[in-house]
Amino acid sequence: MLLFFLSFLFLLFPSPSLSLNQEGLYLRQLKLFLSDPDSALSSWSDRDSTPCAWFGVGCDPVTHSVTSIDLSNSNLAGPFPSLLCRLQNLTSISFYNNSINDTLPLDISSCQNLQHLDLAQNYLTGTLPHTLADVPNLRYLDLTGNNFSGDIPESFGRFQKLEVVSLVYNLFDGIIPPFLGNITTLKMLNLSYNPFSPGRIPPELGNLTNLEILWLTECNLVGEIPDSLSRLKNLKDLDLAVNNLVGKIPISLTELTSLFQIELYNNSLTGELPRSLGNLTSLRLLDASMNDLSGPIPDELCRLPLESLNLYENQFEGNLPASIANSPRLYELRLFHNRLTGVLPQNLGKNSPLRWLDVSSNRFTGEIPASLCEKGELEELLIIYNAFSGQIPESLSECRSLARVRLGYNRLSGEVPSGFWGLPHVYLVELVNNSLSGPIAKTIASAANLSLLILDNNRFNGSIPEEIGWLENLGSFSGSGNEFSGQLPVSIVNLKQLGSLDLHGNLLSGELPTGIDSWKKINELNLANNDFSGKIPEGIGRLPVLNYLDLSSNRFSGKIPLSLQNLKLNRLNLSNNRLSGDIPPLFAKEMYKSSFLGNPGLCGDIEGLCDRRGEGKREGYAWLLKSIFILAAFVLVVGVVWFYFKYRTFKNARATDKSKWILMSFHKLGFSEYEILASLDEDNVIGSGSSGKVYKVVLSSGEAVAVKKLWGGAKKESDENDVEKGQFQDDVFEAEVETLGKIRHKNIVKLWCCCTTRDCKLLVYEYMPNGSLGDLLHGSKGGLLDWPTRDVKSNNILLDGDFGARVADFGVAKVVDSTTGKPKSMSVIAGSCGYIAPEYAYTLRVNEKSDIYSFGVVILELVTRRLPVDPEFGEKDLVKWVCTTLDQKGVDHVIDPKLDSCFKEDICKVLNIGIHCTSPLPINRPSMRRVVKLLQEVGPENMPKTAKKDGKLTPYYYEDASDHGSIA
Asked: Superkingdom of the source (predicted)?
């Protein structure tokens, strides 16, 4: 009876799952195995008869059988669901941009009808399954942005129908295998951004006669470009950039008449550009920058209807062919850092929508073409370091699209067109080192986005207009070496974003305006060599980040404000004024003497500063001087006797003392080692790290040097760690001396000399006052020791031998060891203090994403002032401590309490960048290019960014294509 009743209920209220077909049951089972925090699969209901209406499911309209699964961008997590292979008619699977993890299983081969497989931007690891080649109908395979490692399976040479394969941004570390040339059906092969072992481009790739796209960017390729690639007659896009290719560009490549884009930048190619490039009638985009190419730019190339031409950082010479101006779609022309001469084509820009023009650091002459902005799209105009003459064209004053203008270091003259000052979108105007004249026009009020105004060393005159104070985004105003006159406008105190004001060497006069203390972000104030008068405002002492103050050679009078003692100054100069009274106690030291010279009424405790004292005081000391003279005579007699007996001992001791210090100089010095040694006290320490301390030493000449004192002391032979550490310090010292002692480069810190004894080693550097991220966060006591320096041409950071972490410039493409010149992984650097990216534990590989993680750790160190590993963290490290503390206590318990609270918003931005970089999953970490952009955005609000490089096909999945340009 009970059984009958249950059967009746079952018939009356049937189970809802009984109506769902078998394919739907498979998918419902799949749903149980995937993490779905965003409920993307909420529509997958077992009340439906088929899954065809479910999110991401595609079915045949006749048979209602599932043919495709597309769950892209759904935030799903879990291992790859092999269960999908039970769907007999499934031809397409896409889990693009999810969190699919673990390895790709061998039974993927059971998806026998699969044609399209997209697992890009996930967290898959391990080696590629060799069984993938057993999927007979597979045409499209995209595994971009995972953590696959090892070799590409040899079985891949058996694919019969594969047309597209993309393995970008993984960890493959074998060579690019020749057997890929067997997949003759391929139309696209993209292996970019993998840490392959050094190897040549396999000549067998020339067998891929159906290939349309070949991207091998940053694949550690060496050797020459093989002639066999000339067989790729259908090739439209060839990208071999960022490798170590050598030799000439093969003439055989010019037979590929279907080519639309060629990317060869950042290699070591030599020779001339083949004139037969003119045969490539389909070519629109060419980038052969950052090589060692020479000779003229072929007219045949310039006669093509090019859209983008990048040939910068080579050794091209001769004229720029006038035919380039006839290209109807030319939007980008970058030729900087070559040896080009002659004039720019005078109709350049007349026939084309020119957007980016950079011909800096050449030898061009003549006038700036008036037609550059004819189409109204010009955004960047960079012609610095040439010999252009004449006036700035009036037509540029109507170019409202301009955002970045650098015309400095030329021979331009005449007045700047009035409208040019007020371009609405421009954020950088640099006119430095020309012969331009006239006033700054009041139209500058319209330049609402102006952030950097650099006018030094011209002949500008007249008063600075009141309208300058309306520029809310102005962060730097530099107009030194001109003829500006009158008072500073009262409105200038309204510039809340102002970080630097340099107007030294003008004819400015009057008192400084009240309200200067509103400049909360200013770090440099230089008004020297003018005719300012009145008192030095007390408000200057309330500027929280000011570290450079020069008011010398003016007519300031009255007392020096005591509030100046609140500042952390790297430079102070109040000399040659009319100041009087006492010097504030903090500055009443010999080391500051040069800062106060030339003030007749200024007295203090610095000997020799005042020219005369009270006569009564002199007479009061006269008797003492006479007594000292008599006593000295007596001591002299006694001393001669004593010296006779102690001469030999004294001589030997003196010789021994001098022998302790060995001085090795690399430049002409204006100081001795004894002046350096006398200043190595704790008050002058500006940094400390794993290898020693850094001192700021102000010399008697008034100049400052930075002295690195390496940890010393004799090591006990029984202590193996100490012995190794001592050897490491010796290696550090020798590497740093050998490298920096020979380098002469404007972008690399100068090593003046080194001083050594048996137990102590000193390195004396040029002092770098402009600071770094460490200075931004921690002021002059940053707690970080070493200065990496940047080689602008190679865009590399040169680390000193200590592999320190202080970053002086974030425009970094890769890190190299300054001793060997070879690439250096940031993970290795961070690893020296106990920390590297977590995936190293199972991949034993370091790559760009590992570097980003280590860089993020450095950022977190700076923001928190904590070490990567600390007993306080317990079993956690710095990254986990930051995340846990943020969740439980908030940001105030994470950031260094010594940081100025007025910069909390910016500090939090930097903290977020560090957290982003240290994501436990490599795919979530930004690229270094993205990190640079994020760091550049910290600071002045609403600063316009460099425009994107539109129209360029690229294998870059996270960023735009090569975003190169002269250093701004």
From this structure: Eukaryota
CB 215 within 8 A of CB 191: yes
Pairing relationship of beta strands 363-366 and 339-343 according to DSSP bridges: parallel
Q: How confident is the model at residue 322 (pLDDT cuts 50, 70, 90)?
A: very high
Q: In this predicted structure, which of 69-78, 191-200, 268-277, 654-663 has the lowest mean pLDDT?
A: 654-663
Count of C-beta atoms within a 10 Å radius of residue 619:
9
Q: Side chain identity at 533, as an amino acid letter?
A: S
pLDDT above 50 for 11: no
Cβ distance 312 to 335 under 8 Å? yes
Q: Is the dihedral of CA 122, 128, 133, 139 positive or negative?
A: positive
Whole-angstrom Cα distance, residue 518 to residue 520?
6
CA-CA distance, 480 to 527, in Å (whole number)? Answer: 9
Q: Give the pLDDT of residue 612.
A: 47
- Judge whether residue 351 has pLDDT over 70: yes
Contact 562, 535 (CB under 8 A): no
Mean per-residue pLDDT, 520-534: 96
Provide the pLDDT confidence category of residue 946 given band limits of 50, 70 and 90. Answer: very low
Please give the structure tokens belonging to residue 459.
Answer: 């002949």
713 burial level (CB within 10 Å; 0-12, 13-18, 19+): exposed
d(CA 468, CA 440): 9
Q: Report how far residue 33's alpha carbon sits from residue 44's, in angstroms, rounded to the nearest whole number.
A: 14
Higher pLDDT, 226 or 909: 226
Closest by Cα among 908, 804, 957, 708 to 121: 957
| Contact indicator for 127, 153 with CB cutoff of 8 Å | yes
104 by Cβ neighbours in 10 Å (0-12 / 13-18 / 19+) ranks as: buried
Report d(CA 516, CA 501) in Å as an integer. Answer: 12
**Catalytic-residue membership of 791:** yes
Catalytic residue chosen out of the listed positions 134, 299, 517, 791: 791
Report the sign of the C-alpha dihedral through residues 910, 911, 912, 916, in that order: positive
Contact 539, 513 (CB under 8 A): no
E strands present in 370-472: 380-382, 387-390, 404-406, 411-415, 428-430, 435-438, 452-454, 459-462
Q: What is the pLDDT of residue 731?
A: 55
Burial status of residue 629 (CB atoms within 10 A of its CB: 0-12, 13-18, 19 or more)? exposed
In sequence order, what DSSP letters do the residues of 795-821 get, joined into one string?
A: TEEEE-TT-----S----SEEEETTT-
- Write down the pTM of the prediction: 0.68
List of long-range contacts for 677-685, beta carbons under 8 Å, 24+ apart: 677/755, 679/591, 679/707, 680/707, 680/709, 685/781
| Cα dihedral across residues 415, 417, 420, 422: positive or negative | positive
C-alpha span between 522 and 694 (Å, rounded): 26
What contacts 24+ positions apart, CB below 8 Å, involve 734-741? 734/801, 735/800, 735/801, 735/818, 735/819, 736/763, 736/800, 736/801, 736/802, 736/818, 737/664, 737/763, 738/819, 739/798, 739/800, 739/801, 739/818, 739/819, 740/666, 740/765, 740/800, 740/818, 741/664, 741/666
- Residue 679: the pLDDT is 79
Mean pLDDT rounded to a whole number for the chain: 81
The size of the chain, in residues, is 968
Distances (CA, A) of 561 to 535, 537, 546, 551, 587: 9, 7, 15, 13, 11
3-state secondary structure 750-800: CEEEEEECCCCEEEEEECCCCCCHHHHHHCCCCCCCCCCEEECCCCEEEEC
pLDDT band at 65 (very low <50, low <70, confident <90, very high): very high
* CA proximity to 743, closest of 789, 802, 807, 795: 789
Structure tokens at 959: 């960023």
Quote the pLDDT of residue 725. 42
Lowest-pLDDT choice from 42-46, 272-276, 364-368, 452-456:
42-46
Helix (H, G, I), strand (E, B) or coil at 578: strand
The order of strands in the sheet holding 789-791 is 789-791, 796-799, 814-817
pLDDT of residue 690: 53
